[in-house]
TrEMBL record:
<dbReference type="GO" id="GO:0005634">
    <property type="term" value="C:nucleus"/>
</dbReference>
<dbReference type="InterPro" id="IPR001763">
    <property type="entry name" value="Rhodanese-like_dom"/>
</dbReference>
<keyword id="KW-0560">Oxidoreductase</keyword>
<protein>
    <recommendedName>
        <fullName>arsenate reductase (glutathione/glutaredoxin)</fullName>
        <ecNumber>1.20.4.1</ecNumber>
    </recommendedName>
</protein>
<dbReference type="GO" id="GO:0008794">
    <property type="term" value="F:arsenate reductase (glutaredoxin) activity"/>
</dbReference>
<dbReference type="InterPro" id="IPR036873">
    <property type="entry name" value="Rhodanese-like_dom_sf"/>
</dbReference>
<dbReference type="GO" id="GO:0005737">
    <property type="term" value="C:cytoplasm"/>
</dbReference>
<feature type="domain" description="Rhodanese">
    <location>
        <begin position="18"/>
        <end position="121"/>
    </location>
</feature>
<dbReference type="Pfam" id="PF00581">
    <property type="entry name" value="Rhodanese"/>
</dbReference>
<dbReference type="GO" id="GO:0004725">
    <property type="term" value="F:protein tyrosine phosphatase activity"/>
</dbReference>
Length: 131
């Protein structure tokens, strides 16, 4: 049973991201390193996404995340595609992995930044959030 993918606006995400069960998954490639990112987001670049899906499942499980919000720069191609691949991966393995919601951020990172929402520019491999 394939999961459906829903869309979420930046304003909705701003509220939602404070919850402990929500993970933001940034699938941009190199842009993340120079454009900044949403605080606390995980980076799973689209070019290696397929191979790293098991890592993402593990990361979500380990941190008790049941809602994953995918985005790329505009959330038109890479974001929805990776969200779909992730949903298909779970469906093929008949594995729920505790994931209840798979979402895509409307307008992506560029829309988020353009509407003045907070961005983080830390350079660590893993964003610790809180900025
Ligand atoms: Zn950061």
């Amino acid at each position: 049973m394939a999961k459906t993918i829903s869309y979420i606006t930046g304003s909705e995400l701003l509220t939602l991201k404070e919850r402990a069960n929500v993970a933001i998954v940034d699938v941009r490639d190199d842009e993340r390193s120079y454009d900044g990112h949403i605080s606390g987001s995980l980076h799973f670049a689209s070019d290696s996404f397929q191979d790293r899906i098991p890592n993402l499942v593990q990361a979500a499980k380990a941190k008790g995340k049941d809602t994953l919000v995918f985005h790329c720069a505009l959330s038109q191609v890479r974001g929805p595609k990776c969200a779909r691949r992730f949903a298909d991966y779970l469906a093929e393995r008949k594995e729920e992995a505790g994931i209840k919601n798979i979402m895509v951020l409307e307008r992506g990172y560029n829309g988020w930044e353009a509407s003045g929402k907070p961005v983080c520019r830390c350079t660590g491999a893993t964003c610790k959030g809180g900025c």
